[in-house]
Amino acid sequence: MQGKVTIPFWSADAFLYFLMPRDYICEWSSELVSRASSFVDAYILHDKVVLPERYRRYKELKELDPEGSVFEFIPSSSLEHSDDLVKGVTLDLSLNMTDLETLMQEDYKWFSQHDGNTTREQYECLFSSDGIPMAFLRLWQLGLVNEISEKTKSSIILPLSLQGLEDDKSKRKLPFHVNKLSDLDSHFQNSIKSITANVGDNFVDYLNNVPPLFTLFIDQALSQEHAIEVLKKLREDYSALRSLSSQYKESLEKAESIRDKKDVVDDWNRSWDNMLNGDFRKPQLLRKKISSSDVSKSIVKPESAGLSTIIQAYLDYREEKHSYKRFKIYSELYNELDGISGSRKSLESKFSVSLVNELKL
Questions:
Q1: Residue 302 in 3-state DSSP?
Q2: In terms of pTM, does the model score above 0.85?
Q3: What is the spatial distance between Cα 233 and Cα 350, in angstroms, rounded to a whole number?
Q4: How many whole angstroms separate alpha carbon 147 and alpha carbon 137?
């Protein structure tokens, strides 16, 4: 099955808690937001999402998948790793653990992120007696999700705390559409930072380092009760992202020679670069100003520079139009994001979540 993904159960737990109605404001960290957003990305961007079998009973997942075609549940009995803290913590000794001491030096940082917001004093008090090091919990989650990925032939979406734990050789290649979404996110976030630097810190109140689909999700949802219907609609609206990845893979499979495959890759990369350079805008015919004198010169003297100006403008337009047609769905997403403001306020007013423990990435 193409487009299959798995996520750590931390991500599933964070998303389910995110939807839980409450009459108080809870303090969240960048890590918890990244976990909830991992679930959102997995649901929208992939055909199937693989989770441990205990999540089969959650009504929220049944509402997101009434036909049983999205979520796939893997039995605990088929796993070597523990898939629940009540069963203990298991470690994959084949993971790159040479830097375990370094990982443990980050235990306070990641425990505070895991808890939502814990001070150093609170952390020291909690761990003055025996406790499972945060580094062990992170390695356990990574080992488990790696095992599920291997058994189900799935890609993986990781929250912040589990990124960068493995060496470069162990990293899995992201599906085409997910990789390009990361490019769009970087482009969008850089635009925000550039404007904020000139206008001020309060510019439109975006959430820093929050993936685009999660930002769109909290903007469009009216409340926690409304969130599931919005997420189902987003999956439907952005089905073209999933299709685009299949088209790219099929184009490569049809190319018979190495040179043909390279041509496919170069063509898609060139189209993507055009979208980035055009800031994801729909191309406008002959945007470059061409004076009437340029036109008359090209008619009277075909060899003059005027003709090359007109032809080049037309060729550029054709190339931009081709790129836009191929990646139109990303342009539509960018346009949606471009109109969003007050994300931080929406997070608190709609979902009773205050982002107080932010990582500077």
A1: coil
A2: yes
A3: 18
A4: 15
